[in-house]
């Protein structure tokens, strides 16, 4: 019985490739075919199979649903947690985490989980409810999908409530009137805005203000003050306040100043925009002056400039006060509006000097002191020395009459007085010193007065760092003893 060996097989070679028990023949040269002789295999045929069984991944998800409390539109709730636990005995893949449903945009999920999760390990998803302003207040729902989890979905639900805002004195524009230019916040005009959440009904929500800024051409002239609205929560029917001061800066701008208050909140129509306006007045003002720092002994030069909201053209007289210790402030006597000018503030460096005594050769008393060497000539020592000399004189010069004794006593008193005056009370020569301008920060005031008797001031902030001593060694070092003076004698 002939049977085909592996079916009819086309060979690319010659007849020698035919195995024993097979016959080969040529079909079309150079191709050969073979056919083998044997018995058919017994039926059925059997094949051995083997493999290793592993446990299926088992990602358990809990809880199966999340419900959020009422949340004002445009705000974000606290996060709630969904836990994914790998309850199986093998590493599992985490995939297919997404949000779907009617209000999917009102929920957010933060996924810190790695792509795989080891057996018996868990990770957590954070879910927040943040109802969008664009939707209507009321119930919101969505689905959190976890494709590889059991269950594979988590139901999300919450209720959106909505705030409503009103602003007094106006929702659209506020006028601050007139204020003197360049006089600062303390002299400005203040307006306090009343911001009220006037939402009502089942879905009334708290008002949340996330940003309050002033923008526009003259935004620096409208200064935000006390604010109880920003980053707070105003319940329905309640009011918070925002304080704004109009304090026109001293700049080369027209008298009319304008800006815009931009209030970002969670009420419909956010951000709220309110036009601000005011008028700068005054004959002149000082533009802001930059602070300076100099070393003691140096001179600071400040550059100042005047502007006028009223187009004042008269002259302005200047004076200066508050100069630092041992310093001076020098402004020009008169200037005009629009003119730049300089004010110099001079300081004094520290110095010291000593008085050089006269040559010993020209002073008999110094000649005697010189022979005493380095004996300290304090007042006490001089007095003791002169007293001993007086007693010796009384003993060694016995007098023959009262008149002579009187003359001796008078001479002793005169000698003691001269000695005390000559000795002094210190071993060193009198020294003089100048501490100069002390280190520190000084506020110097420049005052301007125009022909209409309008007065304005500018503050020059000056910091003085350190002191320098300009004296040389010979002047600075006083002689310390009589012994040193002895070497100054002239022949």
Question: What is the count of helical runs?
Answer: 5
Contiguous uncertain segments of 5+ residues: 1-15, 358-375, 469-491
* Helix residue percentage: 10-25%
Q: End-to-end span in angstroms?
A: 156 Å
Mean pLDDT: 81
Number of DSSP E strands: 36
Strand order of the largest sheet: 11-13-8-5-15
Radius of gyration: 52 Å
Shape: elongated
β-strand percent reads 35-45%
Task: State the secondary-structure class.
Answer: mainly beta
Task: Tell me which oligomeric state these chains represent.
Answer: single chain
Q: Sheet bearing the most strands, described?
A: 5 strands, mixed
Please characterize this protein's 3D structure.
The protein starts with a strand and ends in a 5-residue tail after the last helix. Strand 35 and strand 36 (455-465) form a beta hairpin. The protein is elongated and about 170 Å long. The strands form 9 sheets. The protein has a 5-stranded mixed sheet with strand order 11-13-8-5-15, with no helix packed on it. Strands 6, 7, 10, 14 and 16 form a 5-stranded mixed sheet that branches. It is mainly β and 491 residues long. It is built from 5 helices and 36 strands. Mean pLDDT is 81; it is low at 1-15, 358-375 and 469-491.
């Amino acid at each position: 019985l002939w049977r085909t060996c592996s079916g009819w097989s086309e060979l690319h070679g010659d007849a020698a490739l035919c195995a024993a028990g097979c016959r080969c023949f040529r079909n079309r040269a150079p191709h050969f075919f073979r056919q083998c002789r044997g018995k058919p295999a017994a039926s059925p045929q059997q094949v051995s199979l083997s493999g290793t069984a592993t446990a299926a991944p088992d990602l358990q998800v809990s809880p199966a649903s999340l419900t959020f409390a009422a949340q004002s539109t445009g705000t974000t709730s606290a996060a709630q947690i969904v836990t994914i636990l790998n309850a199986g005995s093998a590493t599992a893949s985490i995939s297919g985490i997404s949000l779907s449903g009617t209000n999917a945009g009102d929920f957010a999920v933060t996924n810190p989980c790695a792509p795989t999760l080891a057996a018996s390990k868990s990770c957590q998803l954070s879910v927040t409810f943040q109802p969008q302003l664009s939707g209507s207040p009321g119930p919101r729902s969505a689905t959190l999908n976890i494709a590889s989890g059991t269950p594979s979905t988590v139901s999300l639900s919450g209720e959106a409530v909505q705030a409503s805002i009103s602003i007094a004195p106006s929702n659209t524009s506020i006028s601050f009137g007139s204020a003197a230019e360049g006089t600062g916040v303390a002299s400005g005009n203040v307006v306090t805005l009343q911001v009220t959440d006037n939402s009502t009904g089942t879905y009334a929500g708290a008002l949340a203000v996330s940003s309050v800024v002033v923008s526009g051409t003259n935004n620096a002239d409208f200064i935000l003050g006390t604010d109880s609205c920003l980053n707070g929560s105003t319940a329905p029917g309640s009011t918070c306040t925002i304080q704004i001061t109009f304090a026109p800066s001293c700049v080369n701008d027209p008298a009319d100043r304008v800006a815009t208050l931009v209030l970002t909140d969670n009420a419909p129509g956010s951000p709220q925009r309110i036009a601000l306006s005011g008028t700068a007045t005054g004959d002149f003002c000082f533009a802001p002056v930059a602070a300076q720092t100099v070393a003691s002994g140096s001179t600071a030069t400040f550059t100042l400039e005047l502007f006028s909201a009223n187009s004042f053209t008269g002259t302005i007289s200047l004076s200066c006060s508050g100069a630092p210790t041992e310093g001076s402030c020098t402004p020009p006597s008169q200037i005009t509006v629009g003119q730049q000018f300089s004010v110099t503030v001079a300081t004094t460096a520290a110095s010291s000097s000593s008085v050089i005594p006269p040559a010993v050769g020209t002073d008999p008393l110094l000649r005697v002191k010189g022979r005493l060497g380095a004996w300290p000539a304090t007042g006490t020592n001089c007095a003791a020395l002169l007293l001993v000399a007086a007693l010796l004189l009384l003993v060694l010069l016995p007098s023959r009459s009262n008149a002579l004794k009187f003359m001796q006593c008078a001479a002793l008193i005169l000698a003691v007085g001269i000695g005390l005056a000559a000795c002094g009370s210190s071993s060193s020569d009198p020294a003089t010193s100048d501490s100069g301008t002390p280190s520190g920060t000084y506020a110097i005031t420049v005052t301007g007065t125009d022909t209409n008797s309008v007065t304005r001031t500018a503050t020059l902030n000056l910091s003085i760092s350190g002191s320098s001593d300009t004296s040389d060694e010979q002047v600075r070092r006083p002689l310390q003893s009589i012994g040193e003076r002895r070497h100054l004698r002239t022949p």
